[in-house]
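Progress report, Aim 2. The chain analyzed during this reporting quarter is listed below.
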Amino acid sequence: MAEAGAMAIPTQTGILGWVERTGNKLPDPVFIFFYLIIALVLFSVVAAMSGISAMHPTALDEVTGNAQRIEAVSLLSPENIQRLWVEMPTTFTHFHPLGYVLVVMLGAGVAERSGFFAAGMSKAVKSAPKTVLTPVVALVAMIGNHAADAGYVVLIPLAGILFAAAGRHPLAGIAAAFAGVSGGFSANISPGQLDALLFGITEEAVAASALDPSWTANIAGNWFFISVMTVVYLPIIWYVTDKIIEPRLGPWTGGATAGRSADDASPDPAGETGELASRGLRHAGLAALFVVGLWLLMVFAPGTPLIDEAACEAIPAADCSIHAQLAPLYRSLVAAFFLLFLLTGWAYGRATGSIKSHRDLVEMMAESMKDMGYYLVLAFAAAHFVAMFGWSNLGLISAVHGAAAIDSTGLPLPIVLGLMVVFTGLLNLFVGSASAKWALLAPILVPMLMLLGISPEGATAAYRVGDSATNIITPLMVYFPLILVFAQRWQKDFGLGSLTAMMLPYSIWLMVSGTMLIVLWFYLGIPLGPDAPVAYVMPAAMP
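Predicted structure tokens for the chain:
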């Protein structure tokens, strides 16, 4: 990583050059939130003085029995000033994504630092037959986005080495792995820390809107969708790599180690296999089976702690769903992933020697929290922006008027979702952080789409499609310079424009296919996950 930061990165020209220059002029996302808070305060004062309002879609006025009028509230009112200072600790600590992400990352930090993630990815791709090397690399890359940094630092350079060893162009391997890890960032076969992060923000947006107080986040709410994304993206990355990118690169004649020098200090995970690593992976597999068995026991054993058997007692049997009884199971998935990552990482570390005592385990957990330092600062700013948006009523007012404006255009709802994907992809060129973008967009988009009949899970799914597709072509993506370093190991004159041009076909194909997928998904009405319909019906109005 240090090498990537030290290198002089060539400047791009054209449209992407403008994106790079414009994006570099933007302040840090933390300060973007602070500037937006200042603008929000000023706008709330003007809106309150102007009498801007909307009719609440679900609340009735107790006196008249008509829809309750929601008026803009100044954030400089005595009540809101007091609320800001008095509730500041609560506003921060009750920010839903905070607890979800920190809990999962406590376990994921152990799995990463023990070497489990790196060894698992290395073992998977090194065991692949040469004939299916591309799809295996792409699949492991998409699954490997659970491993965060390890996916970039371990798998991408390893893919280049394996392609070269197979007599194929190493840059094609780097491209396939980069497309999977970053372009397929939201695609996976199971939920993980990204789901905890995004659904935490979605839950915060729903709560701030007060449209549906009973709605709670389920981090498996996009499970079916992201699994199908993986199936759809896999042949696309395979096709683009083998039929578009590799033919353009031409035949490779440099050998399996060409382009590497003796003083090359950038990460090289070529030795992440061997008998010791295999032993560690076997132990980690047993630990994973233990966690799965434990959760099955809590579902099916007497007492069923993760099944709410009384959930249907107060409602007619015809209206009851198995998902209502499974609500505790869904809400336990954050803890399940924490324990899964923690125990598999610990088992691998004990078997390989990277964890020698409980103190090493605690140190790894502490180190993972140190890595979350920037996220904590960002979460502090985002939490206050989202909360103050709710206090001013501007989020709900904007959502009501925005929904009415979209409804008046007559656009089909799937097309609305498709446009949201494209908008998110364009915004992603300038603001790289997935959590920062969603914290900015969710307070308006989630309630607005709810009013249009699209569930919070549907809004989250559409967002993550757009957020992934353009990661691989923006030079503002934090790992972009590092990928360039890996590519220059094999081709010294490979520049920033070369990397963007190589990844552009992936970005276009992933954007088009992802947009088509979300549009088709809504048309078919397929659940996005367990107890996660794509359509949404507003609750009945209540006084």
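Residues 1-10, 260-271 have pLDDT under 50 and may be disordered. Residues 496-524 form the longest helix (29 residues). These observations will guide the mutagenesis work planned for the next reporting period.
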